[in-house]
């Protein structure tokens, strides 16, 4: 995978994110930065997703990918992981993982293989430099990037006080 640093003055910086309030000054990128210019839909939801929720997310993702839409999510357990996996499985599917760690670290750590596959076939982005471990406050802040990259947000199974609903509020 290729590593890039895209600042707000870089012509490759995603234009939709640049228009959002509180856009990060720079993005650390692992993978194909051109995907950040593709039409994206965020698919987010519960970390403790039910089997039905994961199936629903995968069905939405497959349809969106077949329509040429890139899937954006946060690499979290549950719905996020199901969305990324479905995008990678769909012929022609593309996915963007926005991390609350450095772009080289997966959170949760068991998603390291998924992070590597996304970097190889999609793109991983973070506002944090490589090697930055996750901190509790990084993840709500990450959600503003997910919302800022996407044309819309699909929420599958979310508690009233969840990161998924933070993303939905930011998207609105």
Summarize the structure.
With 172 residues, the protein is of the alpha/beta class.
Overall structural class, as computed from helix and strand content, comes to alpha/beta
Strand count, sense and barrel status of the largest sheet are: 7 strands, mixed
Give the H and E element order: EHEEHEHEHEHEH
Helical content class: 25-40%
The N- and C-terminal alpha carbons lie at a distance of 33 Å
Please report which band the strand proportion falls in: under 5%, 5-15%, 15-25%, 25-35%, 35-45% or over 45%: 15-25%
The rounded Rg comes to 14 Å
Unreliable parts: none
Morphology call: globular
* Helix run count: 6
Describe this structure in words.
The chain contains six helices and seven strands; from the N terminus they run E-H-E-E-H-E-H-E-H-E-H-E-H. The chain has a seven-stranded mixed sheet with strand order 1-2-6-5-4-3-7, sandwiched between helices. The longest helix is centred in the middle third of the chain and has 16 residues.
